[in-house]
Amino acid sequence: MAASVAVDIAVPESEPKAAAPVPAAVAETDAALMLRYREGDARAFEVLYERHKGALYRYLLRMCRHQEMANDLFQEVWSKVIASRERYEARAQFNTFLFRIAHNCAIDHFRRAGRQHAGRTDDVTELEDQLAGAESERPEAQLSEQQVRDSFQQALLQLPPEQRDVFVLYEETGLSLEEIGNITGVAMETAKSRLRYALNKLRAALQQHRPDREQVES
């Protein structure tokens, strides 16, 4: 039986930035850390928490529109990680283990609340950059960053929940489509299809901000 380990979990005041990567030669694997924590090593949990709190919090914040709700889910996820440490097996990445819990917590919350997923992003993503491109530097093609941001947020909100979930997991976690499928309970091809549909819809929604080449070149 693992020793009971009390760990304080601080909700980030704002979206935390990813920690600087630790050289592979000196970094202990997540699985090894979780196994150490399972045996009662609180320091191992602290390292895991520092590594993954940023991506987890961003995922939760983008899945729900309210910071207070994201804070509550953030606490709930880590509490479940702590509670389930004795059942952890190092057969899958810790990232997969963590975000499966996060996904289930979010789904349970929305079911309890009787509402659909609501998405949110506070970043102008690489997708937006691709749409604007270098043409945005031309005076006649300059766009309001806030306008693009708002359009992207609205488009993300309007995605079906299962497409939004796959898109946010893919963007925030660095997991493969197979792992995302495992988290969301679908086959890899289904996850891939959902991601493709999500990207197509987001691109279509932002197409209105792309300068008309014919007008620019005339």
Short description:
This protein is an all-alpha fold and 218 residues long.
Note down, in words, how this protein is organized.
It is a single chain. It contains ten helices and no strands. The chain has helices spanning 30-38, 42-63, 67-83, 94-113, 126-132, 145-158, 161-173, 177-184, 188-206, 213-217. Helix 2 crosses helix 4 and helix 8 packs across helix 9 (188-206). The longest helix is centred in the N-terminal third of the chain and has 22 residues, at 42-63. The chain starts with 29 loop residues before the first helix and ends with a helix.
List the helices and strands and how they pair.
Elements: H1 30-38, H2 42-63, H3 67-83, H4 94-113, H5 126-132, H6 145-158, H7 161-173, H8 177-184, H9 188-206, H10 213-217
Helix pairs in contact: 1-2, 2-3, 2-4, 2-7, 3-4, 4-8, 6-9, 7-8, 7-9, 8-9
